Amino acid sequence: MSASMRFQTRSLYRIIGIVGVETFTKTYATALRALTERRDIRKRQRATQAVADPELAARRKIKKNLAKKEAKKRRIEELRPTKNNSGKKRKRKA
Question: Which GO terms describe its cellular component (predicted)?
């Protein structure tokens, strides 16, 4: 576990210790519900917009797929073995 993760875990337990488990759980559940609802609203808006303006939806879809394609190229390039000075192959580091 990284130092950052340990710090976050300790901080979380401190907060739970201060406000109490029940209060923390209720507040966390409320925040999670609100977040999920906002995501659902945005998803419905995108679906509605795709019907209302299919050209814009198509442009966004193309842009998203190009970004995925570029990310895949970067991943493959990072994993592709390269030759070092001695001619031996090694894996390239990120």
Answer: 90S preribosome; small-subunit processome
